[in-house]
Amino acid sequence: MAVHSLLLLLFAVSVLVVAADEEPFIGVNIGTDLSDMPHPTQVVALLKAQQIRHVRLYDADQAMLVALAKTGIQVVITVPNEELLAIGQSNSTAANWVSHNVVAHYPATNITAICVGSEVLTALPNAAKILVNALKYIHSALVASNLDRQIKVSTPLSSSIILDSFPPSQAFFNKSLNSVLVPMLDFLQSTGSYLMLNIYPYYDYMQSNGVIPLDYALFKPLPPNKEAVDSNTLLHYTNVFDAMVDAAYFAMLFLNYTNIPVVVTESGWPSKGGSNEPDATIDNANTYNSNLIKHVLNQTGTPKYPGIAVSTYIYELYNEDMKPGPLSEKNWGLFDANGAPIYILHLTGSDALLANDTSNQTFCIAKEGADPKMLQAALDWACGPGKVECSAMRQGQPCYEPDNVIAHSTYAFDSYYHKMGKTPDSCDFNGVATVSTTDPSHGSCIFPGSLGRNATTFTNVTAPSMNSTASDSSSAYNPQSSELRIRSLLLMVIGFLICGVVLL
User: Fold this and answer.
1) Burial of 38 (0-12, 13-18, 19+ CB in 10 A)
2) Extended strands (E) in 288-341
3) What is the mean pLDDT of residues 372-389?
4) What pLDDT, on the 0 to 100 scale, is given for residue 447?
5) Domains detected in the chain
6) For this UniProt entry, which residues form the secretion signal (predicted)?
7) What gap in Å lies between CA 236 and CA 398, rounded to an integer?
């Protein structure tokens, strides 16, 4: 029996190696629940600037597909859940959908896959019975257009349908869903497609009641005695993501499917949350997404399949301020609606993907838990005797919000730190400041040391707003800064015009 299991596992590895016929990639999901959604041409300009070559749309928006034409960006489009019932009940409806949303745009727009619904089994269980029909009808329409080899068809699943996910070797799919999952896996296997899975270590961590350590969820290095060990396989797991991916492979193996690769269609970490979401922070979001990107692109693989990386789409490109639910739901994005980074990823060797590396950058920030009165005194000194340019923190300026002493002192501290050449003693401020590698820039407030930012945009830095009157000199009108802002604005307008011409 043991020999049989070993042979089965070896066979699975060999098949998956063949199935992994392309280099692993990092993509980004593009949600649209924004009160000020950027124009598709602006979205594409951001994708190009960040060298994002793989995107997933939650629909098949025509303007977006046109904007993506001739960019080379690989695009995954989606049949929205609200259209699923009609498509799952009518072959002709599916054919019309493919004609309108795929054939009309391909190959100018490089559509590589179609998501049929999203988390249907958990979000729309009443439609589960027609899900496989919808997959088949969409695929048949692709076959009729001779596009079935170029465009894969699958459906993203929530990882919550995998039960007993640790140890991974004991994982299995919720058996009540087998009547849908088995024919779905048959379809994926027969068409050479892949299992789409949404993995959120943030939720696993939050719901574990302290069982899952934060470092384990964030891909942080663990000492050997802190690694999670699968008692059946003796494989060591150093992060939740790998454990969930392997759990999916073992769950498929449990149903005798050994040659269906996994693609993670959603994964990320929120940068802000409510009072009951203390670990939804910029630092944690930066750590998770930076480590995830490196983990995938380094082709680390998982303990079950080392060296076979799982391509992953980060959730998501923009913060979606119109999303219902807790505060964290609105704060999964890498960028705000203006295209400014929520944080600067810690990346090296990522082939310029999301090219805002901070590996050689440091910033001076307010120390967590510092006395507010001491922070205010240090802020007053920096904007007064310290001669820091603090006008960006005045009301109505880019760094006024958030209007609190922590944010404002962080801006002033960092400005002084860079002004003084980042010497160790320039980031102390009587013990209330500390050096950080995380860029505190946010929204349109760009800090002095933010990578790729010209020093002339200093006054547009996201900085703390001044509540003190001790720094009148810092808030004085600066004609040189004004001239530079106008020059920057003109360059931006010219850039958009050129970008528009190129996209046309």
Assistant:
1) buried
2) 312-314
3) 92
4) 83
5) 2-207+240-330 (3.20.20.80), 363-478 (no CATH)
6) 1-20
7) 47
Distance CA 244, CA 234 (A): 16
Whether 288 and 202 have beta carbons less than 8 Å apart is answered as yes
How far apart are the C-alpha atoms of 160 and 144, rounded to whole Å? 35
- Whether the CB-CB separation of 434 and 410 falls below 8 Å is answered with no
The CA distance from 465 to 449, in Å, is 18
Q: What is the pLDDT of residue 369?
A: 86
CA–CA dist 295, 264 (Å, integer): 13
Q: Mind giving me the DSSP string for 368-423? A: TT--HHHHHHHHHHHHTTT----GGGSTTSTT--S-SHHHHHHHHHHHHHHHTTS-
| CA gap 152, 53 in Å, rounded | 17
Amino acid 116: pLDDT: 98
Q: In angstroms, rounded to a whole number, what is the distance separating the alpha carbons of residues 205 and 216?
A: 9
Beta bridge partners of 76: 56, 113
In sequence order, what DSSP letters do the residues of 56-72 get, joined into one string? EESS--HHHHHHTTTS-
Mean pLDDT, all residues of the chain:
83
Least confident window among 52-66, 214-228, 261-275, 413-427: 413-427
How far apart (Å, rounded) are the C-alpha atoms in residues 475 and 205? 45
Tokens standing for 133?
Answer: 């029909």
For residue 422, give every residue at least 6 positions away whose Cβ sits within 8 Å of its Cβ, in sequence order, or none.
Answer: 362, 449
The label of the residue with tokens 């891909």 reads 219
Cα–Cα distances in Å, from 94 out to 233, 291, 446, 490? 44, 39, 47, 47
Q: Residue 163 forms beta bridges with which residues? A: 172
Output the CA–CA distances (angstroms, integers) from residue 41 to 44, 46, 69, 300, 410, in the order listed: 5, 9, 11, 35, 34
Helix (H) or strand (E) holding 96: helix 91-98
Question: Cα angle vertex 64, ends 60, 65, to 5°?
Answer: 65
The two three-digit tokens of residue 257, written as one number? 């499917």
Give the sign of the dihedral formed by CA 216, CA 217, CA 219, CA 220. negative
**Alpha-carbon span 314 to 292, nearest angstrom:** 9
pTM of the model: 0.70
Read off the DSSP letter of residue 154.
Answer: E
pLDDT tens, residue by residue, 177-192: 999 999 999 999 999 9
